[in-house]
Amino acid sequence: MKSTRERILDVLHSNPRSSINDLAEAVGINAISVRHHLNNLEADGLIQYDEERHGVGRPRLVYSLTERGVERYPTRYLQLTDRLLDQLKEALPQEAINRIFTQMAAKLAAAHRKKAEHLPLEGRIKLLQEILAQEGFEVEWEADGDHYHIREITCPYYHIGHSHPEVCTIDQTLISTILDIPAEKIQCVLSGDRHCTFLIPRPQPKENPL
Questions:
Q1: Which of 178, 179, 165 is nearest to 106 (CA)?
Q2: Which of 64, 59, 74, 72 lies closest to 23 in space, CA to CA?
Q3: 3-state secondary structure at position 12
Q4: Average pLDDT of every residue of the chain
Q5: For residue 206, what pLDDT is reported?
């Protein structure tokens, strides 16, 4: 059974620009509860609101899914992308396909390279987190002993990746390029893991000469 949060998202997917009262009626809860869920969904970046005027008086707020929210629902675009990649694979050798994805990531990283040049490693990781968020990834990271763990909570390529795992080279190349350190993937959702996780070595302090 779907949660109230999921039901609200479903309504907004099929009926964009719904008001709080519209959602309350569709989901079967009161407007106060709807507002609470909407605040949380907005904080998660899944919905957005706009003002809609109807004659005289205060405008009402209407809600819709953000791009990130829409990506929760497979669309015809996924089918189109899947078919395009199938055709590319028929026309090009695998090495060429891999090179295309690597070049895409390198071009994206090049646009942010200057920002990362003079940052310490943790500063570059924070910048990387922002860049990946712009691309649709939700990322968290932590220091653990001699390494950093970079964990992808959500991935915009999840559905396509099952048929075309080559797309996974995009985020791995982007991570390695921005951090200027090879990123080792130690977990992958396509292998049954809960998240894709990358391991980054922490720089060791230099020993002072005697």
A1: 178
A2: 64
A3: helix
A4: 88
A5: 63
Confidence at 156, pLDDT banded by 50, 70, 90:
confident
CATH 1.10.10.10 positions along the chain are: 4-70
Q: Where in the chain is the domain with CATH 3.30.1380?
A: 76-201
The yes/no answer on whether domain 4-70 falls in CATH 1.10.10.10 is yes
pTM for this prediction: 0.63
Structure tokens at 46: 């899944």
Residue range 76-201, CATH number: 3.30.1380
Confidence of residue 16 (pLDDT cuts 50, 70, 90): confident
- Kindly write down the DSSP assignment for every residue of 52-120, as one continuous string: E--SSSPPEEEEEE-HHHHTTS--HHHHHHHHHHHHHHHHS-HHHHHHHHHHHHHHHHHTTHHHHTTS-
List, in sequence order, every residue forming a beta bridge with 152; answer none if it has no partner.
139, 196
- Judged against a pLDDT cut of 90, whether residue 185 lies above it is answered with yes
H or E element in which residue 148 lies: strand 147-154
Q: 94-103 b/e with 16+ CB inside 10 Å = b?
A: eeebeeebbe
